[in-house]
TrEMBL record:
Residues 305-328 are annotated as: Disordered. InterPro entries: Metal_Hydrolase, Phosphotriesterase. Keywords: Hydrolase, Metal-binding. This is Hydrolase.
Length: 328
C-alpha cells in the first residue's frame, strides 16, 4: 500500500506525486507583528500566488508545496485550500510555533506536554475548527546558537507531537544558526533524526555543520534559494555541491521560502519558481545529473514528509518522475 501524505484537500498517495516539491514555502501568512508590514501574503495576493503555481505546474510539473506557516504566523488553512484547488497543486499545511519574537502568549505559561496536546489536537481534528489537518510540524523556530526557554519548549512539544502522530518536524534556524542544538533537543525528546529537517542551512557558510547534520540522518534544508540579500546563489551552489560531493544527496531539501509579498513575481520578485528557472539550471551546468535533481526536488521531500528513512527507502518515492517532472 502506498504511503499517504496529509494535504489540505485530504490524504494523497505518495505515488501520485510525480513532479517536484517545494519543501518550504508560504502561501498565506501575516508576520507584521514580528517582521514589519511587508511580511504578509493576504487574500489580496491570492490570485497572483495561484497564477504562479499554475505556471510552475504547467512548465515544470510542480506537484506539491509544503506550506510551513504555523501558529502565531497568521496561518490561514482555508486560503491554502483555495489556492490548492484553484492551482491544482497539492499543499501540505503545518502546525507548531515559530521563533521567539512572534511567540504567542501560550508558550510562556504552558508545559511542553500541554503544548504537544494542542498540536496533536490539530493533527487529529484539524486547525481551528476548519477540519483541515496539517501534514507536517513546522516551522518550529529558534533564533540563536541555543534555543531560548520558550523556543526549547516549543521544540520539545513538536518532538512529542511528532512521535505521537508520525509527522515530521521542519525547523526555522534564524540565519542558519543553532541547527545542531535544535537537532540535539529534538532527538533527545525521542524523535529520529530522519524525521527532522533543519531549516535555512544555506545561510551559513559552514560545510562541516552541513555534513554533521546530514551524517546524523537529518535533512539539511537549503530553503532560501534566490534570497541574494541574505546569501548569494553562487555561495549556495558551492555549499550544495560540497554536500553532494560528500555523499549526502539524499539528505538535502530545496526551496525558496517566499514569505513577503515583494518576493512575488507580480511585484517584481524572484517568485516561487526561482529554484526551477535559475538555480537548478546552474546545478545542471555544474554537472549534477537528472536522477540527483529528482532526488533533491521530489524523492527527498517525500521521504521526509512520510518519515521513511532513506536507508530503507520509501519505494513509492523512489520511482522515476516522468519527463518534465523533475524541474525541466
Amino acid at each position: 500500500m502506498s504511503a499517504l501524505l496529509q494535504t489540505v484537500a485530504g490524504p494523497l498517495s505518495v505515488s501520485d506525486v510525480r513532479g517536484p516539491v517545494l519543501a518550504h514555502e508560504h502561501l498565506a501568512l501575516d508576520l507584521t507583528r514580528g517582521a514589519g508590514s511587508a511580511a504578509t501574503l493576504t487574500p489580496g495576493h491570492r490570485a497572483a500566488i495561484t497564477e504562479e503555481l499554475v505556471s510552475l505546474r504547467e512548465e515544470f510539473g510542480l506537484a506539491l508545496v509544503v506550506e510551513l506557516t504555523c501558529r502565531g504566523m497568521g496561518r490561514d488553512v482555508a486560503a491554502m485550500a483555495r489556492i490548492a484547488a484553484d492551482s491544482s497543486v497539492a499543499v501540505v499545511a503545518a502546525t507548531g510555533w515559530y521563533y521567539e519574537p512572534v511567540r504567542p502568549a501560550e508558550l510562556t505559561r504552558t508545559s511542553p506536554e500541554q503544548l504537544a496536546r494542542t498540536l496533536i489536537g490539530e493533527i487529529e481534528r484539524g486547525c481551528g475548527g476548519s477540519g483541515i489537518r496539517p501534514g507536517v510540524i513546522g516551522e518550529v523556530g529558534s533564533h540563536g546558537e541555543l534555543p531560548g526557554e520558550a523556543e526549547a519548549g516549543a521544540l520539545r512539544a513538536a518532538a512529542l507531537a511528532a512521535t505521537s502522530t508520525g509527522l515530521s518536524v521542519a525547523t526555522h534556524a534564524r540565519f542558519g544558526r543553532g541547527g545542531l542544538a535544535q537537532l540535539e533537543l529534538l532527538t533527545a525528546a525521542g524523535l529520529p533524526p530522519h524525521r527532522v529537517s533543519i531549516g535555512h542551512q544555506d545561510l551559513i557558510d559552514d560545510p562541516a555543520v552541513h555534513r554533521e547534520l546530514a551524517a546524523s540522518g537529518a535533512y539539511v534544508a537549503f530553503d532560501t534559494v534566490g534570497r541574494e540579500g541574505y546569501r548569494s546563489d553562487r555561495v549556495r551552489l558551492r555549499l550544495l555541491l560540497a554536500l553532494l560531493e560528500s555523499g549526502f544527496a539524499d539528505r538535502v531539501l530545496l526551496s525558496c521560502d517566499v514569505w513577503r509579498h515583494g518576493y512575488l513575481v507580480s511585484e517584481g520578485g524572484m517568485g516561487y519558481g526561482h529554484l526551477f528557472r535559475s538555480f537548478l539550471p546552474r546545478l545542471r551546468a555544474a554537472g549534477v545529473d537528472e536522477e540527483t535533481i529528482d532526488g533533491l526536488t521530489r524523492r527527498n521531500p517525500l521521504r521526509f514528509l512520510t518519515g521513511t528513512d532513506g536507508a530503507s527507502g520509501a519505494r513509492e518515492a523512489e520511482g522515476r518522475a516522468p519527463a518534465g517532472g523533475s524541474g525541466r
